[in-house]
Amino acid sequence: MSVLVAVECAEGEVKKSSLEVATYGARVAAMLGTTATAIAVGEASEAGLAKLGEQGIAKVLYDAEPRLKDFVNNAYTKLIAAAAEQEQAKIIVLANSNIGAAVGSRLSVRLKASLATNVVALPKTDGGQFTVKRGAFSGKAFSDVVLSGERKIIALKKNSIEASHEAGKTAEVAAFAAQLADADFADAPQQVVMQEQTGGVLLPEAALVVSGGRGMKGPENWHLIEELAQALHAGTACSKPVSDVDWRPHHEHVGQTGITISPNLYIACGISGAIQHLAGVNSSKVIVVINKDPEAPFFKAADYGIVGDVFDVLPKLTAAVKALN
Amino acid sequence: MKFLVCISNVPDTTTKISFTPDNKEFNKAGVQFVINPWDEYALTRAIELKEANAGSTVTVLNVGEADTEPNIRKALAIGADDAIRVNAAPQDAYFVAEQIAAVAKDGAYDVILMGKESIDYNGFQVHGMVGEMLGIPTVAPAMKLDLAGTTATLEREIEGGKEIVQVSTPFVASCQQPMCEPRIPNMRGIMTARTKPLKVVPAVGEPARTQVAEFALPPKKQGVRLIDAANAGELIQLLRSEAKVI
Ligand SMILES: Cc1cc2nc3c(=O)[nH]c(=O)nc-3n(C[C@H](O)[C@H](O)[C@H](O)COP(=O)(O)OP(=O)(O)OC[C@H]3O[C@@H](n4cnc5c(N)ncnc54)[C@H](O)[C@@H]3O)c2cc1C
Ligand SMILES: Cc1cc2nc3c(=O)[nH]c(=O)nc-3n(C[C@H](O)[C@H](O)[C@H](O)COP(=O)(O)OP(=O)(O)OC[C@H]3O[C@@H](n4cnc5c(N)ncnc54)[C@H](O)[C@@H]3O)c2cc1C
After folding, report:
1. Nearest residue of B to residue A265 by CA position?
2. ipTM attached to this prediction
3. Out of A98, A113, A305, whose CB is closest to B224?
4. pTM for the structure as a whole
5. CATH number of B2-213
6. Which of B23, B99, B156, B239 would best serve as a mutation to test chain A binding (most A beta carbons within 10 A)?
7. Domains of chain A, start order
8. DSSP per residue over A178-231, as a string?
C-alpha cells in the first residue's frame, strides 16, 4: 500500500500545482505510515523530476514515450493505472486541472475508486473514515466528503496548500514502461496552441492576480492592469462582461461560470462584486478592491480597499511596487 | 445523428447558499432552480448540429426527482425533441454517471454532450466517468465542436492554451463558452414542449462511492480597511508588511 501522485510537467519542469500535489501526497503518506511515489506526465526531464525529493517524494516513475508530451486522456489514464497497480497504490493524488481531473474521473471507473475533485485540505482519518474537504457551490461553500471505497482518488485544487521545499533532497527517477499501444493515442491532439499569458504567468496557478472589470472602460486601458501585474509577477483576470465583449480572452474570465481561483492576493479594479463574480474569487487569501463607488458590493468581501478612480490609482500602485523592488 | 444532452438541475447563480441546521443538507427553501449554465451550451450546440444534419434528434436526460421536470420542459421548449428522467436523487457523480451510461448504451446515442461542470457540486467528473464506462473518448472541457459526418473536431481548453482534437462518434464532450450563444425558449417552443415525450425510468447500478458528511460556509471577512486614494502607495506597504502577500 502506498500513495501515488501524478505530476504534470511542462518544458522539463514540474508545474507549480503538481509540486503542491507532490507535497500533499507525501503528507498523506506520512499520515498513513507509508511512502509517496510519483508518476510523471507531460514534457518531463530527469533533472526536473529528481527535484521532487524536495516535496518528500522518494521515487518518480517516468515513461520516456515521446507521445506522452501532450495530454492524451486514454494514454495518461492507462499509464497512471499501470503505475498504481505496480505500486499497489491505495491513494492517488492529481492536480484539479483540466488534465488531472479529466484523467482522475476515468481512473476512478477503471480502478473502482472513490473520487473527490476540487479538494482543498489534507484528509481526516479519525473514526476509521477517510474524509476530505472540497469546494462546492462554485466557491460559495465547502463540503466534507467521505470516500468509502478501498481505493481513493483526490484531485487537489490549485493554491490550496503551499508546496514544501526541503532543499537538497532528491528523488530516485526510475524508468517505467506502461506498454502503451498506438490505439491508446487515438485521441491525441492534432495541434496544441498555447496562448500568451501576461508576464508568462498562468492564471490558474498564479499566487497573485490583478483583475479588471467594466470600470476599466475599454481594452485600450488594460496596459494599466498589465503594468501592475508585471511589476508584481502576477497573473491577469477579468469579469465576465469583459470577456463577453472580447476586451480580454475568455480564459481570463473568473467567476461562477468562468474559472475559480484562490490566489494569495486578488486585486479587483473597476469590478462591482456581483455574487457570480465573488464566487470565483472569494477563497483568495487577501482581496483588494479599487472602485470609485463606495457602495460597490465588492468592498464587503474585501480586506483592503481604495475608493477612487482606477485611472488615477493603478499607476500609483505600480510605481509603489517598483519602488519596493 | 442521435444527440443525448445531459442536464443538471442547480440553484440559480444568484442564490445565497445556506444549509440545514445540522449542516448536512443544502437548504432548498426559496431557492430557484435552473438548468446548469454550462449545460445550456451543450443543449444549444446539439440543437444547432441537429438543424445542420437532417434526420437528427436531440434527447435531454436528467437524473433527478420529479421536481426537476420544469427545467426538463424548459430544455424541450428550447428545442430538444424528447426527454428522459432517471427517477432518483443524484447521490454522487459515480451514481449519476452510471445512469447516464445505461441510458446512452440503451439508446445507442452518437454524441453525448454535457456541461463543463455542475455549479452546485463542481465535480468536473461525470463526463470522464461516462466515457470510461462506455469505452469511448471524452473531450473536456470543449470550447468548440464541429461535426463532419461521423468525425468531430473539437477545441479543448488546457491551462494556458487549447488543443485541437478529432474523434469519431460515439464520444462524450463537456461544453463551455464560447461554443455557442445559449438559446432561450420562444412562445412556440413553450407551447410544443408540453406535448413532447418525457419518459421516466428507474435507476440502475451500484450504490454511491462517496457521501457528503457536512457542508460549511467560508469564514466571514473581518471588514475592509480603506486606504486614501491620494496615498495609494500605502496599500503596497501594507500588503508587504501586514498581509505579507508580496
Ligand atoms: C448566469 C450568470 C452567470 C454569471 N457568471 C459570472 C461570472 O462567472 N463572472 C463574472 O464576473 N460575472 C458573472 N456574471 C455577471 C455578473 O452578474 C455581473 O454582471 C458582472 O460580474 C459585472 O461585471 P463588472 O463588475 O465588470 O461590471 P459592472 O457591474 O458594470 O461594474 C463596474 C464597476 O466599475 C466601477 N467603476 C466604473 N468606473 C470606474 C473608475 N473609473 N474607477 C474605479 N471604478 C470604476 C463601478 O463603480 C462598478 O462598480 C454572471 C451573470 C449571470 C446571470
Ligand atoms: C441531496 C443531495 C445529496 C448529494 N450528496 C452527494 C454526495 O454525497 N456526494 C456527491 O458526490 N454528490 C452529492 N450530491 C451531488 C449530486 O449527486 C451531483 O449531481 C453529482 O455529484 C454530479 O455532480 P458533479 O458536480 O460531480 O457533476 P459534474 O461532473 O461537474 O457535471 C458535469 C456534467 O454532467 C451532467 N450532469 C451532472 N449531474 C447530472 C444529473 N443529475 N443529471 C443529468 N446530467 C448531469 C451535466 O451535463 C453536467 O454539466 C448530492 C446532491 C443532492 C441533491
Report:
1. B245
2. 0.94
3. A305
4. 0.95
5. 3.40.50.620
6. B239
7. 2-185 (3.40.50.620), 203-324 (3.40.50.1220)
8. ----GGGGTT--SEEEEPP-GGG--GGG-SEEEEE-GGG-SGGGTHHHHHHHHH
